[in-house]
Specification:
Radius of gyration: 21 Å
Number of strands: 5
Strand content: 5-15%
Structural class: alpha+beta
Order of helices and strands: HHHHHHEHEEEHEH
Helix content: 40-55%
Shape: globular
Strand order of the largest sheet: 4-3-2-1-5
Number of domains: 2
Length: 234
């Protein structure tokens, strides 16, 4: 902690710039034990700058409190990273492997606008919706796969899916997942098992899905443990 204090100058404007590079967990600890750093942590402008500095996605049109918004997006961003990590582990294991699909369910026509998709991808989706076909919007979904991301929607008259696809890198996928969590959208795999789980399986879960459920719960527990015990030797 003293090392961090000595790195600061005593000039608030300069020290704000220094603290922008400090990770959140370290910053939280520093704010709790150092009065000077705490005064910066209580500065709303600092959190506005840190929000932009860390390139967090703006997921609402009305940010009232930047510190609270930063903490919310930071937490959801980490959860999005965990979902992506769990999906990678599950599709790579030797037994009970999955197909590696992350499915974001969209239940209304406008839900797709809640996600920060590329302009080209949104234009493709808009072109599908502009056809005037009789779509069932409760079937809308964004599917994130290792090599592509696609949008799918059921045409009730044709009984067939219309789709559009795009290629997103890891960071873009994390932003999309973060936005989905922010807007309380359901995130499942291609077997309809939620990625966000509690310890008790739902009553509707069939015998086939139970091993996947318990292994996924165990992965969440392991990730949380390793984050709180970073010095554990594996």
């Amino acid at each position: 902690m003293k090392r961090m204090e000595y790195a600061l100058t005593g000039n608030t404007d300069v020290d704000m710039q220094i603290l922008l590079d400090v990770d959140k967990l370290t910053l939280d600890k520093s704010c709790n034990v150092n009065k000077y750093i705490r005064s910066i942590c209580d500065n709303e402008n600092f959190w506005r700058m840190k929000f932009m500095h860390d390139k967090f996605p703006v997921l609402t049109t009305n940010i009232v409190n930047y510190k609270r918004e930063y903490n919310k997006v930071w937490e959801l961003r980490n959860k999005a990273k965990n979902i992506h990590l769990i999906n990678e582990i599950e599709r790579s294991r030797k037994e009970d492997e999955t197909f590696g699909s992350i499915v974001i369910e969209l239940t209304s026509k406008d839900d797709v606008n809640l996600l920060p998709l590329s302009d080209d991808f949104l234009n493709e989706i808009s072109a599908i919706l502009a056809t005037g076909r009789r779509f069932n919007f409760t079937t809308q979904k964004i599917v994130i796969e290792p090599d592509r991301t696609f949008y799918e929607l059921l045409d009730q008259f044709e009984n067939a899916f219309a789709s559009a696809s795009a290629n997103f890198n890891y960071e873009q996928k994390i932003v999309i997942l973060t936005a989905a969590l922010y807007n309380n959208l359901i995130i499942k795999d291609d077997e309809h098992l939620n990625f966000i789980l509690s310890g008790k399986p739902p009553d509707t879960l069939d015998a086939y899905s139970l091993p996947y459920f318990y292994k996924r719960v165990a992965l969440w527990d392991m990730i949380e443990y390793l984050k709180s015990h970073p010095n554990v030797n594996c």
